[in-house]
Write a structure and sequence with these properties.
alpha+beta; two-stranded antiparallel ribbon; 263 residues; single chain; two-stranded antiparallel sheet; 10 helices
Length: 263
């Protein structure tokens, strides 16, 4: 009987010793967790869009808790949720200027000339590396939807060969801006209404053969702007959104009808 009990006692004793050691080790190496983390993560939008510049909402939560990120970095965050996070973290909430994405191209399938037929991967990044798609304009929207795939809020779509933003769904996260290989998408103030929808730097004579509606850099918009907020550089006109009063004088005097008022 003693021979049978001895191994049991020894194993039991070893189990007790190792259990005690594990208990001590757990206390020594215990990683303290911030109880606020779960609440903050729940308040964040959960889209993991990367608009804040971090890997996702979990990374944003960690950065907020350790003080390396500001609440306003999350463009998709609802105002009431932002206020709750600020209260939870004991921070002052600074309201950022609301922005939405805008696509600076009017080269639809009807307006833009074709240089050939593209049969590669239906993606703008891939097309940019393989001849730039089928449109003749090297500055225009290729229309293969890399921006659409990047948008977690279903705020952008491709219509007649050009990407179009739905402002009612856009949160200004900037994911589409990063996705566009031709840098045609920009975050603009919500209050901005007048846009020169072209980014081409080709000369006017060349543009006429490439796109029916592209900017030719004629300068008539700048000449007729009462606020002097339009500049022409490298054959392309641009508007200062912070100073534009949306009077539409530029729209009325643009011979190519590339300037538009968007509500």
């Amino acid at each position: 009987m003693l021979k049978l009990l001895l191994p049991v006692v020894v194993l039991g004793g070893l189990g007790a010793v190792f259990g005690a050691l594990l208990g001590v080790a757990a206390k020594i190496f215990k990683v303290e967790t911030d109880e606020r983390a779960e609440v903050v993560l729940e308040l964040l939008p959960g889209a993991n869009c990367g608009g804040c510049g971090l890997a996702g909402c979990a990374a944003m939560t960690e950065a907020l808790l350790n003080g390396t990120a500001e609440i306003g970095m999350c463009a998709a965050l609802k105002q009431e949720n932002a206020a709750r996070i600020a209260e939870l973290l004991g921070k002052k909430l600074v309201k950022n200027e609301a922005k939405v994405a805008h696509v600076f191209c009017s080269g639809t399938c009807e307006q833009a000339a074709k240089k050939g037929t593209y049969t590669g991967i239906y993606d703008c990044v891939s097309a940019a590396q393989c001849g730039g798609g089928d449109k003749a304009c090297m500055y225009g929207c290729m229309g293969y939807g890399s921006c659409v795939a990047a948008c977690a809020f279903h705020a952008i779509s491709v219509c007649d060969g050009v990407a179009v933003v739905d402002n009612s769904n856009c949160v200004g996260c900037g994911a589409c801006v990063t996705a566009c290989p031709r840098e045609l998408i920009e975050l603009v103030p919500v209050e901005a209404k007048t846009f020169i929808n072209c980014r081409s730097h080709d000369k006017g004579s060349a543009m006429k053969d490439i796109c029916k509606i592209g900017c030719i850099g004629c300068g008539l918009c700048a000449k007729h702007c009462p606020e002097d907020v339009i500049r022409v550089s490298k054959h392309l006109a641009t508007i200062s959104y912070t100073m534009c009063t949306n009077c539409n004088a530029c729209i009325e005097n643009c011979p190519k009808h590339v300037i538009a008022h968007v509500e």
